[in-house]
Amino acid sequence: MPVSGPPVATSLPVGSDADLAWVRQRIRQTAAGLGFGLVQQTKLVTAASELARNTLVHGGGGHVEITPVTRDTTRGLRLSFVDSGPGIRDVELALTDGHTSGGGLGLGLSGARRLVHEFELDTGPGRGTTVTVVAWTADVPAARSGE
Ligand SMILES: Nc1ncnc2c1ncn2[C@@H]1O[C@H](COP(=O)(O)OP(=O)(O)OP(=O)(O)O)[C@@H](O)[C@H]1O
Ligand SMILES: [Mg+2]
């Protein structure tokens, strides 16, 4: 029996409020298992909660992929929120604090971005939306030159 194998991605549906609750729970469990502290878990779950809600409300539902990742000796968690909804026409505007196309606060996307280490938006009109975030168990200084 293998003691450890390659990190396995888990895919969970995001199609209802009940799915959102389960997604939050699974992400917290997975993060805790990887060694995320309580504050780090809460940051990641808060970001995930906003992104999953966008997948449901704006994207018409989709799924989330949960993948443990490592860089050098640091462990992290990558989350991809995927929908095939209308997509986002103006990404910069959507990421502006307070911008909402509906009755929200417009703080979901921008807030989520601040709560994770890496944030990537792949979207466009008619292309659906994929938001991928990565959080690490420790802050790894990025390689810098001349600083
Ligand atoms: N998955 C998505 N598909 C299509 N549009 C999206 C998606 N996610 C976000 N958007 C667009 O980006 C805007 C900003 O998203 P954000 O989460 O910041 O605000 P919100 O969902 O309107 O309000 P809230 O503060 O309640 O989250 C949304 O109003 C919506 O127009
Ligand atoms: Mg939102």
What would your notes on this structure say?
This protein has one domain (10-136): Histidine kinase-like ATPase, C-terminal domain (Heat Shock Protein 90). α1 (17-34) packs antiparallel against α2 (38-57) and α2 runs antiparallel to α4 (108-114). It is globular. The chain has helices at 17-34, 38-57, 91-94, 108-114; strands spanning 10-14, 62-71, 74-83, 118-124, 128-136. The chain has a five-stranded antiparallel β-sheet, covered by helices on one side. The protein is an alpha+beta fold and 147 residues long. β4 (118-124) and β5 (128-136) form a beta hairpin. The site of magnesium ion has 5 residues, from α2. It comes from Streptomyces toyocaensis.
> How much is the radius of gyration in Å?
16 Å
Principal-axes shape call = globular
Give the CATH class: Alpha Beta
Derived from helix and strand composition plus strand pairing, the structural class reads alpha+beta
What series of H and E elements makes up the topology?
A: EHHEEHHEE
Main β-sheet, spatial strand arrangement: 1-2-3-5-4
Give the N-terminus to C-terminus distance in angstroms. Answer: 48 Å
Q: Would you count the extended β strands for me?
A: 5
Classify the beta-strand content into a percent band: 25-35%
Question: Care to give the gist of this entry?
Answer:
The protein has 147 residues and is of the alpha+beta class. Helix content is 33%, strand content 28%. The protein has helices at residues 17-34, 38-57, 91-94, 108-114, and strands at residues 10-14, 62-71, 74-83, 118-124, 128-136.
